[in-house]
Amino acid sequence: MKRRRTIAVAAATAAFAVSTLAGCGALDKAMDCVKTADAIATSVDKLTQAVNDASNDPTKIEEALNSIDTELGNLKNTTDNADLSKAVDDLNKGVDSVRTAVKNGDTTPDIKPVTDAATEIGKVCTPG
Length: 128
What we know:
Oligomer: single chain
Radius of gyration: 15 Å
Mean pLDDT: 76
């Protein structure tokens, strides 16, 4: 939850900074990035919770991974930033790794690559 709040504060700061420095097109793009970064943070929080509760309901992991995939698709369509593209690629790789581990029966997969990449997306979407 702390990570989500940090990203939300960063998103608000980014929105203000971008609105004072950029035109409407750039502002719209930045806001899309911020909104999607927040949605990814929420999805990663859900993935973390799902992994923690995997013994109760392992399907929650797949649901969280699908949610991250959806948000990544949205983000790819809103940017041409090379750093962001790399972070999105890293997050995709992390999601694939977790998905493969779960498919192979791992109920406590390593989600650090996912959380690291999501944090990087939050940083890239926050100017400054």
